[in-house]
Design a protein that fits this description.
This protein is mostly helical. It has 6 helices and 2 strands; from the N terminus they run H-H-H-E-E-H-H-H. It has one domain. The protein is 60% helix and 8% strand. Helix 1 crosses helix 4, helix 2 crosses helix 3 and helix 2 packs across helix 5. The termini are far apart.
Length: 143
């Protein structure tokens, strides 16, 4: 989240948008982006449902370290890069972190100007394609 929030700064994002952007960063090739950061696995669309709680817990931890700040606006809680975020991002230079940073900037460019409800709808429409993976797999197995 620190890399993502650093990429979209000075803007922030609510939890729902962060969950969606997290997926976009990890499986960017699903969304016509760069090569996915992680190996695409079957039925990965389900991760949108399971990662939310983990992301929320991670955000809480990162707020205690000054990596993420929280502000409240008319839509609710908005998470923004904290004062220590840029130091962290600039300090980690392994290939994985450089690839992560590249995908965060891609996701920020591609999706940060889309409001959360519209982005959720876009992902829901794409989710039908991910659901088709299950249907195709079941059809091939004769179910």
């Amino acid at each position: 989240m620190v890399y993502l929030l650093s990429a979209i700064r000075p803007k922030g994002a609510d939890l729902q948008k962060l969950v969606l952007l997290d997926y976009a960063i990890i499986y960017s090739s699903d969304l016509s982006g760069p090569t996915s950061l992680h190996t695409p696995v079957p039925y990965r669309g389900g991760e949108l449902l399971t990662r939310r709680e983990l992301i929320e817990q991670g955000i809480y931890l990162m707020t205690t370290k000054g990596l993420i700040d929280v502000k409240i606006d008319h839509t609710g809680l908005i998470y923004i890069a904290g004062p220590a975020a840029l130091t962290m991002v600039g300090s980690l230079t392994s290939k994985y972190f450089l690839d992560l940073e590249k995908r965060c900037y891609w996701a920020a460019f591609a999706f940060s100007n889309i409001d959360t409800p519209e982005l959720t709808n876009n992902f829901a429409e794409q989710g039908h394609l991910w659901g088709a993976e299950l249907e195709a797999s079941m059809f091939q197995r004769g179910f």
